[in-house]
Design goal:
CATH architecture of the largest domain: 3-Layer(aba) Sandwich
Structural class: alpha+beta
Bound molecules: adenosine-5'-triphosphate
Number of domains: 2
Family: Belongs to the ABC transporter superfamily.
Number of helices: 8
Number of strands: 20
Oligomer: single chain
Helix content: 10-25%
GO molecular function: ATP binding; ATP hydrolysis activity; transmembrane transporter activity
Shape: elongated
Keywords: ATP-binding, Nucleotide-binding, Transport
Distance between the termini: 47 Å
Pfam family, one: TOBE_2
Protein name: Iron(III) transport system ATP-binding protein
C-alpha cells in the first residue's frame, strides 16, 4: 500500500445552520503524515468540522484545501478522503474481505485485484485469515479494524476518524487506540481524529486542536497543552487542574516567583508579567503535611482510598483543592489541619 499523505488547510471557515453559527472563523493546518485530533466538549463543532472536510457539509464561507487543492465545494466522492465512522458502518451480510474490497470495486478496480488489496489491508490491521468472517462473528475491536482497513485500502490523502472507539469498552479502547496510532506512524498517513476523550487525544496525537463554542481554544502538542495551558478551560480540560489565583511577584529570565495564599513558589515564566494571574496546579503537584499553622493552611474535607493513591479535597482560603497523593501509608482523616506545599513539576502560570 502506498502512502499518499496530503495536508489539510481550513481558511476562515464559517458554518451556520439557519441563524445558528456552529463554526465561527476556523483556520487550521494539518501537516502531511501527522495525526491531528479535534477535541472538545459536546456541541463544540468537532463533527461539523470533520463533516466539512469529508464533503458531507459545505462551509457557509471560507475555503478548505486538501493536498493544496481547493475542495470547498467538491462533493464527498470527489475528495481524496475516507472516513471511519463511530458505528463502523460495515455491511452486515458481507464478510470482512468483501467489506474491505467493496470501495475498491466500486471505484472500478477488477474484483481479483480488489480482493488481493483487501487481503493486504486486513493483514495490515492484524486480521490476516479473518476475511471470511461476517461482522457479527468479530469482536467490536476487530470490526473497528475492518473499518480502518476498508478506509486505508483506498489510499486516501487524509483518513478521517469520527470517535472511532466510542463503541468499545474501556480496556479495548486503550488497545485499539494504540493500534491506530501505531498503524498511522508506520504507514505515515495523514489523519484527522475526532474525540471528546482527553486521554485518547493525549495518547494518539501529534497535535491537538481544542475547540469550544465553534472556535479554537488552543492548539499544540499534547505536552504543550498540558504544560502550558492558555486558559483555565484548557487547564481543567486537558488533564485535571486546580485553578488558583496568584500574584506574580517577580520575573527573572525563564522563571517567575509567584505568591499563592502567602506561599512563595518558583514556576516557569512563559511570558508572564508581574501582577495578578492564575496558576494551573495539577492534583499530583500538591503535598500535604499535618500542621496546625502553615504559610498556606488547609483542612482536609474529603478522603477516598483508591488503592495506589488517595484522593483528597482540602478547603483553603483560596477555595477547594483536589489532591492526588501517592503515599497511601499515612492517610489523613477529614478534619485534619494541613500545610499545603507545591512540588516543582505540574504547576503552570495560565497565560492571560
Ligand atoms: P458531539 O461531541 O456531541 O458530537 P460536536 O462537537 O461534534 O458534539 P457538532 O455535532 O459539530 O458538535 O455540533 C456543533 C453545533 O452545531 C451544535 O450546537 C449542534 O447542535 C449544531 N448542529 C450540528 N448540525 C446541525 C444541523 N444539521 N442543524 C442545526 N444545528 C446543527
Amino acid at each position: 500500500m502506498t502512502t499518499n499523505a496530503g495536508s489539510v488547510t481550513f481558511q476562515n471557515v464559517r458554518k451556520s445552520f439557519g441563524s445558528f453559527t456552529a463554526i465561527h472563523d476556523l483556520s487550521l493546518t494539518v501537516e502531511p503524515g501527522t495525526l491531528v485530533t479535534l477535541l472538545g466538549p459536546s456541541g463544540c463543532g468537532k463533527t461539523t468540522t470533520l463533516r466539512m472536510l469529508a464533503g458531507l457539509e459545505h462551509p457557509t464561507s471560507g475555503r478548505i484545501l486538501i493536498g493544496g487543492k481547493d475542495v470547498t465545494m467538491l462533493p464527498a466522492n470527489e475528495r481524496d478522503v475516507s472516513m471511519v465512522f463511530q458505528s463502523y458502518a460495515l455491511f452486515p451480510h458481507m464478510n470482512s474481505l468483501d467489506n474491505v474490497a467493496y470501495g475498491l470495486e466500486s471505484s472500478g478496480l477488477p474484483r481479483r485485484q480488489a480482493r488481493q488489496k483487501a487481503e493486504h489491508g486486513l493483514e495490515l490491521v492484524g486480521l490476516a485469515g479473518m476475511g471470511g468472517r461476517l461482522p457479527a462473528e468479530l469482536s467490536g475491536g476487530q470490526q473497528q479494524r475492518v473499518a480502518v482497513a476498508r478506509a486505508l485500502v483506498l489510499e486516501p490523502q487524509v483518513l478521517l476518524l469520527d470517535e472511532p472507539l466510542s463503541n468499545l469498552d474501556a480496556r479495548l479502547r486503550r488497545r485499539v487506540r494504540t493500534e491506530i496510532r501505531e498503524l498511522q506512524q508506520r504507514l505515515q498517513f495523514t489523519a484527522v481524529y475526532v474525540t471528546h476523550d482527553q486521554d485518547e487525544a493525549l495518547a494518539v496525537s501529534d497535535q491537538i486542536i481544542v475547540m469550544k463554542d465553534g472556535e479554537i481554544a488552543q492548539q499544540g502538542s499534547p505536552r504543550e497543552l498540558y504544560e502550558a495551558p492558555a486558559s483555565p478551560f484548557i487547564a481543567d480540560f486537558i488533564g485535571e487542574a486546580n485553578v488558583v489565583p496568584c500574584e506574580v511577584i517577580d520575573v527573572s529570565g525563564n522563571e517567575a516567583t509567584v505568591s499563592i495564599e502567602g506561599l512563595q513558589h518558583i514556576v516557569p515564566a512563559r511570558g508572564a508579567r508581574p501582577g495578578r494571574n492564575q496558576l494551573a496546579v495539577r492534583p499530583s503537584a500538591i503535598t500535604l503535611e499535618p500542621a496546625e499553622t502553615a504559610a498556606f493552611p488547609g483542612r482536609i474535607s474529603h478522603a477516598a482510598y483508591l488503592g495506589d493513591h488517595i484522593e483528597y479535597e482540602a478547603e483553603t482560603s483560596g477555595g477547594t483543592l483536589f489532591i492526588v497523593d501517592p503515599s497511601v501509608d499515612r492517610p489523613l482523616a477529614p478534619g485534619t489541619r494541613v500545610a499545603i506545599g507545591l512540588k516543582n513539576r505540574g504547576i503552570a502560570i495560565i497565560a492571560q
